[in-house]
Amino acid sequence: MKATRQKAILEIIRQQDINTQEELAEALKKLNFNVTQATVSRDIKELRLLKTLSNEGVYRYTMVENVEHTLDERFRRIFSESVLSVSAAYNQVVIRTLSGSANVAAEMLDSLGWSEVIGTLAGDNTVLLIVRSIDDVEEILTKINEMLR
Known about the structure:
Blueprint: H1 2-15, H2 21-30, H3 37-47, E1 49-53, E2 59-63, H4 64-82, E3 83-89, E4 92-97, H5 102-112, E5 117-122, E6 126-131, H6 134-148
Antiparallel strand pairs: 1-2, 3-4, 4-6, 5-6
């Protein structure tokens, strides 16, 4: 019963904006789930649902994966908008960014977990990627340029 109810909760929040636990309980009751607010509250915690601000300016429940995806998209957009140039020498890639943007760019690159990259260093407007080998540099440049499109 619990698994079925939690599956229904996920389906409900995918299909409609649910702002409160009471709204979620009402939506579940319409699907013949007899729930209390306490049960809904426990389900929200177990499902790791979060309240996020919708495009309409109201808070609604969403899944953690949706928030992570949105943050990933935002990071990629910030990265592509802040990079000014990319160049390489030997096993190093140097990325020039807008002033103050290098840390964000380096964090974005670190979050990707590329096995070819040993590490990143960030200044104010420059990111230095240390690449495992000279042979891997071309692959890294290709990946970065794809992100900049």
